[in-house]
Every structure is written in C-alpha cells, then in structure tokens.
Input
Amino acid sequence: MELAKVDAIIDRYNNDPTALLAIMQDVQDEMRYLPREAVTRISQKLSVPVARIYSMATFYTSFHLEPRGKYTCTVCMGTACHVRGAKRLVEQLERDLAIPSGKTTADLLFSIEEVNCVGACALGPLVIINGEYNGNMTSDLVSKKVKQIKSQEGGA
Amino acid sequence: MTVKFTINGVPVEAEKGESVIDVARRYGFEIPSLCHHPAVEPYGACRVCLVEISKGGRKKMTTCCNYEVQDGIEVVTDNEDIRRNRATVIELLLAEAPKAKAIVKLAEEYGIHKSRYEKEGDPVAQMHDGCILCGLCVRVCTEVVEVSALNFTGRGDKRNVGTPYMETPQNCIACGACAYVCPTDCIGFEEENGVRRLKKWNRELPLAKGEDGRPFAPQFQLWYFTQKAGLDKDFYKKGGPGSR
Output
C-alpha cells in the first residue's frame, strides 16, 4: 500500500476537511477502491472521524471498500436495456468469470457491476468496460470481449 | 434580537435562532418528539413533532424541531389534521420498534394499539433491530462526547446506525451517552461483574474501582474525561466524584 500517494492527494487539497469527498474520489481513482489504510490516513490528516468517512463511503454506491478488478464490467439495467435482455448479459458475465454480480475475481482482473441507467437507451443493452461503451450487446459479444481482455492480459 | 409570533393564538417571544419546539415547550405547549434533544443539533428525523405553521397567508405542516422562529408566523400545535398526520408517522415508527416503551406510549395516546405496517420477519426491521434511525446516538457521540465512534451507514433500505467496518469501535469510551438518549432503548447498556457493556456496538470495558472498592466507570472513559476537561490525571483517584 502506497500511503505516499494518499498523502500526495491530501496535500493537493491542502488538508482541507471540506474536500473529503473529492479526496476519497481521487484515492479511489488511484487504487480502484478505498483501502482501509487510506481511510485511516485521510481520517488522521484531515481530523475527520473514521466513522464519518465510512458513513460517506457506504452512502455513495460509487465507493468501494473492497479491492476491485482492473476491468469493471458495468451492465446497464435501465428499462430499455432490461427489456432487451440486460439480465442475460449479467448472467453470461457471472458464468464466464465465475463470480456473482457486484463481486471481483480472485485475480483482481474483473468486477461485475449493475447500474440503473446510463442514458444511452438507444444503444441498449449496454455493457461499459472501464468507461468504454459497448452498445447492442449480446451474450456472445460479451463473452468475446471478456476473452479478448483475458488473452490481452496474458491469462488463460 | 427578539422574535415575536403566536403559538395557538398566544403571543410569544423568542430569541433569534431558537427552534419552534423549544419555544413552544418553554411556554408550556406540549409537542411530542423522539429525536429532539436540546444538547444536539436538530435533525428532523422522527417526524413526530409535526405542527402547522402559517406565514403570509400560507399554511404548511412541518416538523418544528428544525424550524427556526420567525416574526409573525402563526404556529398551531394541535388540531385534527396534525393528529392524523402524527398518527400515521407513529404507526410507521411502531412497526419499526414495536417493543419501544416510548413509542408504544405515544401510539396509545394517538389511539394506535397495533401497527398495520408491522410485518413478521421483515428483513429491514430485523436489520434495524428496534432502531428508528433518529440519529440521536450519532449526534451525541459526535457533538457532545466528541468521540465519533458511530455514524450512519449505507443508504435507502440499507441505511443503519453503526460503527466503522461494523467492528467494535476502539475509540468508544463506553460512556453510555448513546444508550441514555436512545428513544427506543435499542442499544443495550449493561453493567455486571465489573464490566460495562454496550451491546449494539459490541463494546466491553472493565470498570475501574472507586475508593470504596466498588466498580465505578471504565478507566478509558475516566482518562478521556480528564484529558477533555483538562483535569489532573489523578482527579478520579483523590476526591473526584468517583471516590465517594
């Protein structure tokens, strides 16, 4: 755990406790989740109780307290995507990666996430992989994407 | 600066910044509430202190614990409309905490004997375990005791009161202020065999003995108090309130 990175982020905000949310976001951008050591460090440097940071981190669904995969597969579950079979895409991902939705693979390569609507309904069903929007997805295409990333990462 | 307004038609005076509930109670008007305590900031969570406030010919129903006094407002603390709305709120609270004495008593005053919303084995009610999320424990721990061992966690139907990472809070001094203010008695404060226990937070601290040899208060709590109040570190050993 590189606490130096956390320190650098906190310094960038001049140890300002009102910037807590922004600091948490930046730390998460850096590490993909909020490690416990980082939460403790932020608490100490900003003089904000851990209980308050934990409260905020559990309030916003975009914060994660457990390690996340290098690739996050976000499946849109909005109405338009839902009627076009978004649930099947989630199930396909769950099968391919052998993890339940919302969790991360043991090799920290993939996480599956469901969101309610990303506002690109015309492209539904959608799977967003690390910010890249893949529209008109099918289970086959999702599987292909996952395989492609796996081989790219040198895995099996 | 003095603010003048009326409560149930009676002219009253208050200081700027006061809340309507405090002024009303000072003048002897009864307003029920569960989440209000003068020692902490108002939060407006329990919704039981609903009153009607008219301002410039407009009338609205609102909680009065977090309503700041204003010149010329007309407050009504009791009428059929208010009672009906309070009754609904109380019935919902009763479903969350059917065993809480304060809520059962309030419900009876409003003619409710059994909540229609109470459901056997409801997972959300089970998670809350008698807690109505009024936030008094959180506010007391943060604002008065200044330990901040607790806070709200989650959101929506997962919202709860808890400790960071749902672990035993190591900074908790087991002072019991949270259990003292809790309107539903859902925290569980126990003292036996020289140990103080706060059940909900799973915190246990051995009690230090006073001069008479009887268990008195956790050493950690006494240490915290001496630090906070700038007392001599042996304050509780010689002639302090613990050495009765």
Summary: The interface with chain A takes residues 142, 148-155, 158, 163-165, 169 of chain B (CB under 8 Å). The longest strand of chain B covers residues 203-209.
